[in-house]
What we know:
Elements: H1 8-28, H2 33-52, E1 67-69, E2 74-84, E3 90-99, E4 106-108, E5 113-121, H3 133-136, E6 139-145, E7 151-158, E8 165-167, E9 174-175, E10 180-184, E11 188-194, E12 199-200, E13 207-208, E14 214-217, H4 226-234
Antiparallel strand pairs: 1-14, 2-3, 2-13, 3-11, 4-10, 5-6, 5-9, 6-7, 7-11, 8-10, 12-14
Helix pairs in contact: 1-2
Amino acid sequence: xxxxxxxxxxxxxxxxxxxxxxxxxxxxxxxxxxxxxxxxxxxxxxxxxxxxxxxxxxxxxxxxxxxxxxxxxxxxxxxxxxxxxxxxxxxxxxxxxxxxxxxxxxxxxxxxxxxxxxxxxxxxxxxxxxxxxxxxxxxxxxxxxxxxxxxxxxxxxxxxxxxxxxxxxxxxxxxxxxxxxxxxxxxxxxxxxxxxxxxxxxxxxxxxxxxxxxxxxxxxxxxxxxxxxxxxxxx
Length: 235
């Protein structure tokens, strides 16, 4: 199992800390049962963190045109029409997936296209399961324009345990379904805001897999290409 590079330093430091606890325990703590319990607890802690930073290699093999693929592993906790004022700047379908600490926490791009907007917002650390976490928690917003001109917003949201959001997406860079847009450490949520005419393929409570589960189909817009959109924006 490959480990995400975000976890390399964490795992090294954790191993050193646990060694600093367990070596003296085996030397100075009688009887044997006490250091054995200490080592057992340490192993469980290390395996939990190791499991959190796993990074499976995934490639979506279905048709990609107009398809939206889940950005993360987790469970769909919100599916409603809302106002998205930051990038779409209008009504959108909000599709939110909550990640537990046991899920893979790498975040994939949901569509192919061009990153047109990236902004980090400081905020609170409420439970990511709560609806208000989308606008009140620490978060990063990524705006993407597809080759057909559709606009999507992806929002990485920190949770009660998550204290660091890492965003690799940069304005002007390419967005590709098989690539990571970021990583969130220790429990969190990702919202995808879709055009209101999108066909949603998932339901509340459904489990998704990042980079693999189709979650929506975008309505084609053959008369508006990405190039035309960029020219319009620069006028």
